[in-house]
């Protein structure tokens, strides 16, 4: 039970403020010398310098501990008042920029670093750490804890639409570090940042948001709200949205967001939701929907009408767990820019889940962004949805050096459909999806060829690349004595050329070189052949053709040898050129 009577927000900060010497002794006594010593040692002014300082510089000590404002680290009583007194002290300490002329900047400067010692602090009212009533543009504020879990702030507000921190275009260059924030109610929100040119440049280091949250960060305004960094932070529990820039109230002036080695491991919820703004980098980290039933979308990039310079998303080296079919990697509606995933892994749950759509890209009458997955391990399926007018713009999609945990073929990994008019009407708008140097994790020697240009048969503009494959047997040569070497090309491929090549002298004696390429249909179609007598004379046969592998039987081919061939020819080549 919280005893709110012990927390008096009207008690003057000066009554609670320890002297400079007493504060430093208290720091040493609590074992904080190693943590804060460097900060204190470098920046605190000697007593005589404080006395000689201009009147505009506060004489109170610059570094304050929440304990000096009457906070209860046991979590038994309400510490809201202590935070409010500390906040008043922080606001009053702001000064005019003494280097304004040199910096060309009249923005006020903050002068306080607030230390929140180890313990659990209960807050029952919103805006206890930052409030909208403060409107003076101020650069510089640090709120420092003792470590995630070591310092806890437990937010027990029950009123919807309120925030623990509310920045009304005032604070910029803010750092919050080493604190665990816990919400007890699902209506709670952590931070609202409104910017029309002021609020910007936040850094969160080693913070943890736990419990039940509606929105952790909400960004609104017309300008800035940019240059934000999260370093090794954690999001856990139940979170509706991690970082949210809404369409109504947001702006394409919001940009430059970096997430380094962060964990978004929640029962349910969306991680990054940008209906406006962008230019986002995700560097490493673990992203998991931990519930067996509930999910969400890790990245939502909404809207097809954005300014240049914001439609760029990069995710490098992150690991994802989709533990149910409601968990999605991304939903994207952007019409320009780039969306790139590099060396990411979504396949940890492939062993127990049937493949379902976990990534959706839409063309809303416009082109999609340039989409690339490079060096990724992917599970599930990716959907590309287009409309009746999508045929009028080019699309650019590629998967390179990727491994697919569940799909044996590229076409089984994709779901491509017209959302406006089902069927083949206006099918020219469907994008071509290119696969380069990719493979299936469940492939064998027969199903090794994965690379293809999916959708080219319908797209009204398809930029294709020819593929050239070589076929040999397990011994590194052609089959013998009626043997057959089976392999499969992607369904929908079009074979343009087959070549049988062998240098003179590779075979000995008068034995004939008798080889051919055929389909696996009930009555096989022979596509090309060579009969050289004797085989020692070598051969060079080029067969141009037009053959559509439009069924499994036509796509499954085999290199065959005549009964009279008894030598394994390791110098011969069977080269098949195809598109698709």
TrEMBL record:
SUPFAM superfamilies: Pectin lyase-like
All residue ranges annotated as the Rhamnogalacturonase A/B/Epimerase-like pectate lyase domain in the record: 67-171
InterPro entries cross-referenced by the UniProt entry: Pectin_lyas_fold, Pectin_lyase_fold/virulence, RHGA/B-epi-like_pectate_lyase, TAT_signal
Protein's recorded name: Rhamnogalacturonase A/B/Epimerase-like pectate lyase domain-containing protein
């Amino acid at each position: 039970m919280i005893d709110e009577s012990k927390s008096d927000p009207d008690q003057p900060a000066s009554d609670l403020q320890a002297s400079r010497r007493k504060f430093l002794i208290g720091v040493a006594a609590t074992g904080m010398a190693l943590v804060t010593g460097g900060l204190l040692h470098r920046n605190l002014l000697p007593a005589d310098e404080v006395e000689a300082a201009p009147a505009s510089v506060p004489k109170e000590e610059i570094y304050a501990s929440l304990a000096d404002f009457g906070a209860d680290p046991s979590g038994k009583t309400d510490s809201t008042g202590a935070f409010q007194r500390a906040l008043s002290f922080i606001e009053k300490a702001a000064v005019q920029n003494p280097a304004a002329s040199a910096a060309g900047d009249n923005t006020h400067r903050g002068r306080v670093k607030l230390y929140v010692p180890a313990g659990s602090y209960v807050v029952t009212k919103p805006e206890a750490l930052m409030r909208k009533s403060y409107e003076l543009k101020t650069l510089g504020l640090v709120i420092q804890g003792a470590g995630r879990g070591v310092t806890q702030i437990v937010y027990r507000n029950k009123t919807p639409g309120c925030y623990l921190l509310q920045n009304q275009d005032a604070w910029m260059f803010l750092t919050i570090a080493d604190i665990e924030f816990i919400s007890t109610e699902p209506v709670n929100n952590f931070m609202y940042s409104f910017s029309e040119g002021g609020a910007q440049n936040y850094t969160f280091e080693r913070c943890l948001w736990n419990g039940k949250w509606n929105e952790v960060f909400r960004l609104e305004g017309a300008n800035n709200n940019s240059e934000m960094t999260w370093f090794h932070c954690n999001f856990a529990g139940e979170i509706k949205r991690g970082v949210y820039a809404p369409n109504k109230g947001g702006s394409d002036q919001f940009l430059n967001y970096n997430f380094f080695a962060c964990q978004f491991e929640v029962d349910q919820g969306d991680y990054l939701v940008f209906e406006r703004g962008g230019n986002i980098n995700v560097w490493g980290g673990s992203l998991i929907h931990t519930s067996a039933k509930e999910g969400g979308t890790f990245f939502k990039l909404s809207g097809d009408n954005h300014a240049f310079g914001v439609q760029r998303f990069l995710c490098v080296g992150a690991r994802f767990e989709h533990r149910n079919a409601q968990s999605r990697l991304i939903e994207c509606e952007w019409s320009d820019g780039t969306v790139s995933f590099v060396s990411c892994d979504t396949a940890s749950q492939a062993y127990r889940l049937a493949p379902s759509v976990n990534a959706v890209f839409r063309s809303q009458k416009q082109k999609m962004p340039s989409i690339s997955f490079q060096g990724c391990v992917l599970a599930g399926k990716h959907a590309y949805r287009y409309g009746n007018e999508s045929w009028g713009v080019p699309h650019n999609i590629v998967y390179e050096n990727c491994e697919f945990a569940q799909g044996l073929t590229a076409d089984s990994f994709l779901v491509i459909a017209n959302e406006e008019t089902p069927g083949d009407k206006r099918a020219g708008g469907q994008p071509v999806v290119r696969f380069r140097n990719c493979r299936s994790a469940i492939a064998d020697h027969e199903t090794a060829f994965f690379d293809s240009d999916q959708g080219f048969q319908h797209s009204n503009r398809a930029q294709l690349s020819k593929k050239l494959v070589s076929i040999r047997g397990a011994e590194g040569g052609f089959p013998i004595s009626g043997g057959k070497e089976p392999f499969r090309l992607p369904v929908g491929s079009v074979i343009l050329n087959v070549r049988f090549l062998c240098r003179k002298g590779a075979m000995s004696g008068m034995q004939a070189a008798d080889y051919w390429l055929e389909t696996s249909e009930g009555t096989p179609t022979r596509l090309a052949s060579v009969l050289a007598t004797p085989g020692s004379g070598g051969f060079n046969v080029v067969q141009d053709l037009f053959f559509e592998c439009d069924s499994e039987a036509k796509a499954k081919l085999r290199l065959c040898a005549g009964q009279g061939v008894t030598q394994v020819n390791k110098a011969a080549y069977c080269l098949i050129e195809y598109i698709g």
